[in-house]
Amino acid sequence: MRPEDRAPIDLPPLRAIQAFEQTARFGNLARAAEVLDLTPSAVSHQLAKLEALIGRQLFVRAARGVTLTPVGEQYLKDVSGLLHSLEMATERAASDVSLDCLRLHSSPSFGLLWLMPRLQAFRNSHPDIQINLSCSYESLHFSRDKIDVDIRHGHPNWPSYEVRTVRHETFAVLAAPALLARYPVTQASDLFERDLILSEATLLKWPAWFAQHGLARPEHPYALSFDRSYMTLEAARHGLGFALESTLLAQKYLASGALVEVAPERLTAPVAAHHLVFPKAHSNFPRVRRFLEWMESELGHNFVF
Predict the structure, then answer these.
(1) Average pLDDT for residues 184-203, to the nearest whole number?
(2) Is the pLDDT assigned to residue 7 strictly greater than 60?
(3) What is the end-to-end Cα distance of the chain in Å, rounded?
(4) What is the pLDDT of residues 273-290, one digit of tens each?
(5) Which fold has domain 14-93?
(6) What integer pLDDT is reported at residue 266 of this predicted model?
(7) Quick check: 305 pLDDT over 50?
(8) What's the rounded Cα separation, in Å, for the pair 38 and 34?
């Protein structure tokens, strides 16, 4: 039989796909119904229609909610991003703006300290792409929040998405040159008697760092603590204490001499803290492909594809 002679495959209704995606996201019919402005019974009906069309069970129902079956997990991976693609295509068709809009979301410190200084270089290379950048520590929903690429901070545990990790990022003890001159540090134990600045949101914090060097955490409290790396780096720049931070984020401080690495050959530690995350379907968007290629050129061998 020739392909053109085959009977057309019945496609699922858009509402059923929306019900499936939202239910998979929340694991709860009531939450999915609230987002979709439907009743829980209507969502359940859409899911039943979809399972009947596919001929396989997508969810395991339980008293506390629903969980995806292996078939459901694979289906979610396969359809992830399709609704977003449809929304973006509709938005572009309805817009008078000729520029293609790349919508990025980033963890705050990476967005401010690494990405922002380089955006002009991207714009110079890709003047036909408009950039929309938002920053928070939330892992946003790609379809609902209209995000093309999410630059996340944390451990890479997003099996439903494509993940590109920034490699060879290191954490180092950083200090203002004047502070280091007054309080030299040649080994980890010297920091017991120093004012330390704590970054609360980083993957590697002072207690774990001291443990890596076979030491217990200092008993005296931290001089300062912040929930953003850029605040920690600014405090260190002003000589308020020693910081344990990413040299990737601290590049401009190190390049200008505002901060220096303390005993870099002994007191650094590798991390894999930043990742570009996106639905697999998004890699088909030209604007996303061009952004990923640009990121690879900026990071070189430090970018994992």
Answers:
(1) 92
(2) no
(3) 40
(4) 999 999 888 888 899 999
(5) Arc Repressor Mutant, subunit A (1.10.10)
(6) 79
(7) no
(8) 6
Joined together, the tokens standing for residue 153 give: 């901070």
Structure tokens at 155: 């451990």
Which two three-digit tokens encode residue 228? 């953003």
Under DSSP, the state recorded for 88 is: H
Q: CA-CA distances (angstroms) from residue 74 to 26, 147, 203, 253?
A: 17, 22, 30, 44
For residue 39, report the phi and psi dihedrals to the nearest 5 degrees: -85, 155
Specify the 3-state DSSP secondary structure of 120.
helix
Query: Which phi and psi (to 5°) does residue 58 adopt?
Result: -100, -25
Compute the radius of gyration of the chain from its Cα atoms.
24
The full length of the chain comes to: 305
The CATH number that domain 170-270 falls under is 3.40.190.10
For residue 57, what are its two tokens? 């069970």
Distance separating alpha carbons of residues 223 and 249, to the nearest angstrom: 21
pLDDT recorded at residue 4:
53
Where, residue-wise, is CATH 3.40.190.10 in the chain? 98-160+280-299, 170-270
Pick 98-160+280-299's CATH classification: 3.40.50.1400, 3.40.190.10, 3.40.50.1000, 3.40.50.300.
3.40.190.10
Q: Which helix (H) or strand (E) holds 97?
A: none
